[in-house]
C-alpha cells in the first residue's frame, strides 16, 4: 500500500452518560496513530507501511474500565479500514501487559530509550 498523503488520526473516549454527571463532557482517553514507513519494516514481512501508535492516554479514574483496551480495539478497526496488516508501538515496561493482552508481541531488537528514561520495547500486532 503506498501513501499519497499523511494518514493520521486521534481516537477519543468520552464518559458514558452515567458518568457525565461527575465528569461533564470531558475526554477520558485518547490514542493517536499515524502511518509510517521506516526501518521497523524489516520486522514486518511483506509490509510497505504500518500504523504506528504515537500515544495512548487514559485518565487514572477510568483505567479500571478498560478504556485503553477499547481504544486499542478501535485502532485495530481503523488500521483494517485503511488497509493495513500491522500496528506498532514503542511500549514502556509499565504498559507491557496492556499491549500483550491486546495481542501485541515484542519485536526482538535493542530496547529503545528516550531522554534516559525507562527503556521502551518495540511491539507489533498483526491484524
TrEMBL record:
UniProt-listed InterPro entries: Acyl_CoA_acyltransferase, GNAT_dom, N-term/lysine_N-AcTrnsfr
| Pfam families, A to Z | Acetyltransf_1 (PF00583)
Recorded GO MF terms: acyltransferase activity, transferring groups other than amino-acyl groups
Q: Which domain of life is it from?
A: Eukaryota
Task: Please list the residue ranges annotated as the N-acetyltransferase domain.
Answer: 1-127
Its name, as the record gives it, is: GCN5-related N-acetyltransferase 10, chloroplastic-like isoform X2
Gene expressing this chain: LOC107775604
